[in-house]
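Summary for the steering committee. The consortium agreed at its last meeting that each partner would contribute one worked example illustrating the joint modelling workflow. Our contribution is presented below. We chose a case with several input lines so that the handling of multiple components could be demonstrated. No manual editing was applied between input and output; the record is shown as generated.
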Amino acid sequence: MFSVNAIAATSATEPLARTTIERREVGPRDVLIEIRYAGICHSDIHTVRGEWGEVAYPLTVGHEIVGEVTEVGAEVTKHAVGDRVGVGCMVNSCRECDNCRAGQEQYCLDGATGTYAAVDRDGTITQGGYSTHVVVDQDFVLRVPESIPYEAAAPLLCAGITTYSPLAHWNAGPGKKVAVVGMGGLGHMAVKIAVAMGADVTVLSQTLGKKDDGLAFGASDYYATGDPATFEALRNSFDLIINTVSVPIDMAAYLGLLRLDGTLVSVGAPPEPLAVPVFSLFNNRRSFAGSSIGGIGETQEMLDFCAERGIVPQVELIGADEVNDAYERVLKSDVRYRFVIDVATLRR
Ligand SMILES: [Zn+2]
Ligand SMILES: [Zn+2]
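What follows is the complete predicted structure of the assembly.
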């Protein structure tokens, strides 16, 4: 084991603070990554505050990690010292179940191992990316193409793949009308990726406050969900709706926006169950679905896609001592569009 600088939560209510955490020695199939940037995801906040269940403290979160490989184990073949790499929301899985074999490790039947607050296969509790270094099995490390700026690459590892996977699965592309609900970290990625896939994209946001950005990201329309006329105007319009918000929504109203065989996919997770009126599903043979990140192969495909198409998340860079303030701003939706920690500020 060796100690590295990190930012950790010591309880559900205390602010995060600088500390050191232990990383395992680099095993034969492990990669040591010197972390350069770490994104702040809303899930980090839910987790450190115990809102998604009990966690062990101290806890370091962060699952949008990019950095440089500085050491590899003897059996590592996929990565080399000096490579630009990334780590997303999972760092291990059973690798043997049907879902793992299908390249859908995020749906591992034995439970994929989360990048933080999870019990790893060796019994240790995983610690995330608000830290100077991380040791990860080579199979869960992604290649970050050179053309994606380092600091902007971080949000692709969660926000990027979380939106890319359902857009790809439900065939967003030319001739398809896609609505994105919410213009936060996930939503702004969903817009950029769906536009790059060739779909006609509409943003549904609480207000028109980010309309100029949405149109600049390539959306063709932008509507305020606070205005009831929106739901009348857009009835039976969309093939696919990606819902990125993590508060309950009026399911009847949103399902009513789907045209024949349309699907509403939730990627944001409100703590309470959603009430789904079944008659809203009968009309137009609609579907309601969920989606969780993406497999390792698909995450690499997403990174390569973003590099080819020049898709870059819009980030606000912060220092290690600004994380608590950033959390408050995330909770107020006051971020354009993802906070990213410059981990250089954690080295001193
Ligand atoms: Zn996340
Ligand atoms: Zn598995």
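The radius of gyration is 20 Å. DSSP finds eleven helices and 17 strands in the chain.
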